[in-house]
Design brief:
Layout: H1 2-27, H2 71-83, H3 97-102, H4 107-112, E1 116-117, H5 119-126, E2 141-142
Parallel strand pairs: 1-2
Length: 143
């Protein structure tokens, strides 16, 4: 019985926390250091993460902050970064860690130069998901 009460309390807490964050994120001002949708661009409808804005290196900026993206938007944004050459992952399927950490993935370049890769790529290599020919899991170094 105590377990059921504890579970109910935890569920209520999570629900309240999620509700507060939703209200907070909808009412908060976007800081100037966060990527913003360029003026005149239509708000993202949830059908992709395409945005015409780019940073100083020419990397496409996300239409909304990464932590607010849906899975579909994340996959679309990662695909766009891959097409533009900013996401060169060394495992298949590609990692998500680099997307959240840096919004780009250099791990394929790093593994070819015998340099360290992100933790998710390292784990992927150890699980047999490496996608670079001639590289052995034992040769892969973790950041």
């Amino acid at each position: 019985m105590k377990f059921i009460i504890a579970l109910a309390c935890l569920s209520l807490f999570v629900f309240i926390s999620c509700t507060d964050k939703t209200e907070e994120s909808s009412s908060r001002q976007t800081p100037s250091d966060q990527p913003q949708i360029s003026q005149g661009a239509a708000p993202d409808s949830g059908h992709g993460a395409h945005n015409d804005s780019v940073d100083a290196k020419g990397k496409p900026l996300p239409p909304v902050p990464i932590e607010e993206m849906t899975r579909e938007q994340l996959n679309s944004y990662k695909k766009l970064l891959t097409e533009k050459g900013f996401y060169t992952c060394c495992i298949e399927p590609s990692c998500r860690m680099c997307l959240f950490e840096a919004e780009e993935c250099p791990c394929q370049h790093n593994v070819k130069k015998k340099e360290a890769v992100c933790g998710e790529c390292f784990d992927g290599w150890q699980a047999g998901k490496g996608s670079v020919r001639g590289v052995k899991p034992a040769d892969v170094k973790k950041l």
